[in-house]
């Protein structure tokens, strides 16, 4: 199940003379969490009113090309004459009138969301922090915090406090409300209404019953922040998605093969892969065939030659396999590239046999299997330049400098005019005498590395050099750098 989701997240802390401790932390953490769920996030910290206005315009444009829209604000919010406003770090607080015209009206954001073409809108406001600027305005207790807001159809508005109350800034990294929100937003397969009930209960504990969150909703369908992979996939059981839970039956031929492939012993893995027959696969079920594919790929990445041979000859070796079971084996191999044995998206994808498997994308008989994996990965758009499995060709441009020895040093790799070459934080980047060290690669090796880093098959990737590169060209690539998303 693929979802197109966009979010605008703002956290303001640096108010002159009255800095909030946690609002920017809140926005950073919520932004990171939404990105994990597949939201395309615009994130602002310590924004001026002009910044907010510009970002809302960009958000408006995004809403019309997405299914889900979410607006989150942490900072000072206030009501003036019954209307709610979110404040910028350059808001003028001398008088209510000054504050009104130098803040951003919340109703404008809600109006924009209501008028967009998307189906579901969510507004989350941790914006009722105790505002010391209001003390000079001689306000009644009922004027504190935010006023109730009508939620248009298809919208949920979530408040950190009940009307007229104020929210705690929190003792740790996060404000009390966002702390509670982050505890529950990743709960799998929980409807948003139930999730916010859990937030309310946790908030009550955190604040010793001093703060009660509330929501106004007119949602007409279910929304889940985190959909577990089992539900996202649908086709296979959770014991296959988390194949560490898969039960090996000793009296089943294919299960014996899977057991041998799990051994991490080449002398066991190689004959298991080489002796695998169509009869073995045809006598199984889709879950067993899926787990077989996962472990074939796992063994091949562990340098079991028999498993690599199976992948290379997959199309011919499985000609006599039932079509559904054949697809399940391929889908297992594809799935293993991106997901670990717990069914979680890998931090580092398993790419050493990536191109061998993705060679089969050129055959129409495997279209459904590549659609299967692209539909799943579409839930994680921020991890990829192009969603793997999509039948799309990509062109990139390599920028180099020539050194004194006449060698070419890579200084930029450009996709859509943007340089995507970056330091790899997981690599342990280092410099020698203040300069980045380089490793020498032949043209084919560099192209393979780029393909695997970008997760774009070589057959779909055109690489343009700014010099006349041939197969003998030695190209210097900076250590500790990558083009992975």
Can you offer a commentary on this structure?
The structure is a single chain. With 485 residues, this protein is of the alpha/beta class. It folds into three domains: 5-227, Rossmann fold (3-Layer(aba) Sandwich), CATH 3.40.50; 230-383, no CATH class; 394-482, no CATH class. The protein has helices at residues 23-37, 49-63, 96-102, 106-115, 176-184, 192-206, 229-233, 238-241, 253-261, 266-274, 278-282, 286-301, 305-312, 314-317, 323-338, 354-358, 367-377, 443-454, and strands at residues 5-11, 39-45, 68-74, 77-80, 83-86, 104-105, 120-126, 155-159, 214-217, 394-402, 408-415, 418-419, 422-423, 438-442, 461-465, 474-478, 481-482. The chain has a six-stranded mixed beta sheet with strand order 2-1-3-7-8-9, with helices on both faces. Strands 10, 11, 12, 14, 15 and 16 form a six-stranded mixed beta sheet that branches. β11 (408-415) and β12 form a beta hairpin. α5 packs across α6 and α12 (286-301) crosses α15. The two termini are 22 Å apart.
Give the class-level CATH name of the largest domain.
Alpha Beta
Shape: globular
Low-pLDDT windows of residues:
none
Number of domains: 3
Largest beta-sheet characterization: 6 strands, mixed
Number of distinct helices: 18
What's the number of extended β-strand segments? 17
Helix % is 25-40%
Strand content: 15-25%
Please write out the topology.
Layout: E1 5-11, H1 23-37, E2 39-45, H2 49-63, E3 68-74, E4 77-80, E5 83-86, H3 96-102, E6 104-105, H4 106-115, E7 120-126, E8 155-159, H5 176-184, H6 192-206, E9 214-217, H7 229-233, H8 238-241, H9 253-261, H10 266-274, H11 278-282, H12 286-301, H13 305-312, H14 314-317, H15 323-338, H16 354-358, H17 367-377, E10 394-402, E11 408-415, E12 418-419, E13 422-423, E14 438-442, H18 443-454, E15 461-465, E16 474-478, E17 481-482
Parallel strand pairs: 1-2, 1-3, 3-7, 7-8, 10-15, 11-16
Antiparallel strand pairs: 4-5, 5-6, 8-9, 10-11, 11-12, 13-17, 14-16
Helix pairs in contact: 5-6, 9-10, 9-12, 10-13, 12-13, 12-15, 15-17
């Amino acid at each position: 199940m693929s979802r197109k989701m966009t979010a605008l997240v703002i956290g303001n802390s640096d108010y002159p003379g009255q800095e909030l401790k946690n609002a920017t932390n809140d926005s950073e953490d919520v932004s990171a969490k939404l990105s994990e769920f597949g939201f395309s996030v615009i994130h602002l910290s310590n924004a001026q009113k002009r910044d907010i206005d510009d970002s809302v315009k960009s958000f408006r444009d995004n809403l019309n090309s997405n299914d889900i829209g979410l607006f989150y604000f942490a900072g000072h919010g206030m009501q003036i004459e019954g209307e709610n406003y979110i404040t910028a770090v350059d808001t003028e607080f001398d008088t209510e009138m000054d504050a009104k015209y130098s803040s951003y009206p919340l109703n404008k954001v809600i109006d924009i969301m209501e008028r967009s073409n998307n189906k579901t809108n969510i507004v989350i406001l941790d914006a009722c922090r105790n505002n010391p600027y209001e003390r000079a305005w001689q306000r009644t207790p009922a004027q504190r915090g935010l006023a109730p807001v009508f939620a248009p159809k298809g919208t949920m508005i979530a408040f950190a406090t009940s009307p007229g109350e104020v929210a705690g800034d929190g003792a740790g990294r996060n404000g009390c409300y966002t702390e509670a929100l982050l505890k529950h937003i990743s709960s799998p397969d929980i409807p948003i209404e139930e999730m916010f009930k859990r937030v309310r209960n946790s908030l009550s504990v955190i604040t010793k019953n001093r703060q009660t969150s509330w929501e106004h909703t007119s949602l007409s369908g279910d929304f889940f922040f985190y959909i577990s992979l089992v539900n996202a996939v649908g086709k296979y059981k959770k014991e296959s998605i988390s194949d560490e839970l898969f039960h090996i039956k000793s009296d089943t031929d294919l299960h014996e093969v899977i057991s041998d492939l799990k051994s991490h012993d080449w002398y066991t893995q190689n004959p298991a892969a080489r002796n695998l027959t169509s009869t073995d696969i045809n006598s199984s079920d889709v879950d067993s065939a899926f787990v077989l594919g996962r472990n074939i790929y796992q063994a091949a990445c562990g340098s079991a030659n028999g498993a690599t041979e199976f992948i290379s000859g997959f199309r011919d070796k499985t000609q006599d396999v039932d079509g559904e079971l054949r697809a399940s084996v391929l889908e297992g191999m594809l799935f293993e590239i991106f997901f670990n044995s717990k069914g979680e998206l890998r931090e580092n994808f398993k790419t050493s046999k990536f191109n061998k498997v993705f060679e089969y994308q050129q055959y129409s008989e495997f279209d459904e299997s590549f659609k299967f994996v692209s539909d799943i990965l579409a839930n994680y758009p921020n991890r990829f330049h192009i969603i793997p499995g999509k039948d799309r060709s990509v062109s990139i441009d390599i920028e180099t400098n020539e050194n004194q020895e006449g060698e070419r040093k890579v200084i930029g790799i450009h996709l859509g005019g943007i340089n995507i070459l970056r330091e790899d934080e997981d690599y342990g980047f280092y410099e020698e005498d203040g300069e980045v060290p380089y490793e020498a690669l032949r043209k084919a090796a560099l192209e393979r590395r780029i393909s695997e880093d970008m997760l774009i098959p070589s057959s779909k990737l055109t690489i343009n050099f700014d010099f006349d590169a041939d197969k003998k060209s030695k190209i210097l690539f900076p250590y500790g750098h990558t083009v992975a998303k």
